[in-house]
Amino acid sequence: MNYISTRGAGIGERHTFSDILLGGLAKDGGLYLPAEYPRVSADELARWRALPYADLAFEILSKFSDDIAPDDLRALTRRTYRADVYCNVRADEDASAITPLKTLGVEGGAPLSLLALSNGPTLAFKDMAMQLLGNLFEYALAKEGRTLNILGATSGDTGSAAEYAMRGKSGIRVFMLSPHRKMSAFQTAQMYSLREPNIFNLAIEGVFDDCQDIVKAVSNDHAFKARQRIGTVNSINWARVVAQVVYYFKGYFAATRSNDERVSFTVPSGNFGNVCAGHIARMMGLPIEKLVVATNENDVLDEFFRTGAYRVRGAAQTYHTSSPSMDISKASNFERFVFDLLGRDPARVLQLFRDVEEKGGFDLAASGDFARVREFGFVSGRSTHDDRIAAISDVFARYGVMIDTHTADGLKVAREHLQAGVPMIVLETAQPIKFGESIREALGRDPERPAAFEGLEALPQRFEVLPSDAERVKAFIATHTGL
Ligand SMILES: *Cc1c(COP(=O)(O)O)cnc(C)c1O
């Protein structure tokens, strides 16, 4: 499998899965994609239906990473997708499914269900890919005799998923910046209670944007970055995207009886990483009818899929909402889909994303390209705070199921795209305990708390408070790497 950049650099060069695993953007600023998507045969699809999650992951990942020895890859997927890691299931769910499908009911003639992706250590779907990444990184670094220092900024979900994936891994340290005293008590406790010596929580005296600016400043110091072997695990990482392809297959098998049926998926979206994986599953031949992109008030993606105009927002137009993990102003994985939409023409992708930098966006309405969006199965919708509060209380009243605010956005939008006879699977991206305030607003009661999280907030916490100053962060990193 060879990988190419969406902007065309390195055409004719060879990039394997391992080559791009530890990197970020391609050198021309584009994103990596396979030179062509592997197709799944009818025989394979039939055989995969009965596989446990870890072995299904092996089958799918091996099509994208033929440079990793099959025995090694199988060991990695079996180590990652274990019932005792994805153990935070509700009483009526089966942890061995890893991503259990929860049937709600039939609405508008469509069987409606939730695919539970948030049973991992941090109770959000990011664990699905990040746990694999931790094991892949450790494997790749050991092979090359290298070490890696991961630097990141978080306002919640990503940082904790990264820390729980990398804790105790040899050859890896994590330096995670978060805004001091600005995260919820639950999220703070989740990250700061980790005791592994390779995890460093840096509480920055500032807001999330300050943390992000520091990460950018440190990354732009190329000499420092090289000397300190700094890397990232952000949402454009290809291995994260491809790991997410697996649960679209798993969800399809759980919602159907035969491979002649089609299903639709609704995906609560921010950076377009999750639904990009759905797009790839569909390109591989999984019978997906629609991919429904659900946004919150930050509706840059909904606007594109309705009108063809992609207009990124400035900080002042990026709203803080009650589904905060979808509060994005530009969708970092979107370029991967645009590349396919434009018939894989890197020169046009380069031009369009230059327009994003220079003019704040582009509009495909006038060209014939936008019409093809529907051929790729994409539709969309948006949800507001009132919509998600209504969805949480409706689903609880009707089905006795408590959902979080992001999943509620998905459910609200899914209901606008139901088709009789086509199962609709809403991806459940987090558990309600992470967003207790909205649950209390919707239901007048506290969210359910998985047993493993009893007393979390009372555990001792480990973190270092630093001023919002890139030089101080650099000094901290250098002292603790000894490089
Ligand atoms: C990250 C996240 C999303 C958005 O996923 P993208 O891949 O960025 O589109 C949705 N819900 C939750 C709970 C998340 O943590």
From TrEMBL:
Domain Threonine synthase N-terminal as annotated: residue spans: 2-81
Residue span, Tryptophan synthase beta chain-like PALP domain: 101-345
Residues modified as N6-(pyridoxal phosphate)lysine: 126
Highest rank taxon of the organism: Bacteria
Cofactor dependence: pyridoxal 5'-phosphate
Recorded coiled-coil stretches: none
Keyword Lyase: yes
Methyltransferase among keywords: no
UniProt entry keywords in alphabetical sequence: Lyase, Pyridoxal phosphate
Similarity comment: family membership: Belongs to the threonine synthase family.
Name of this chain's protein: Threonine synthase
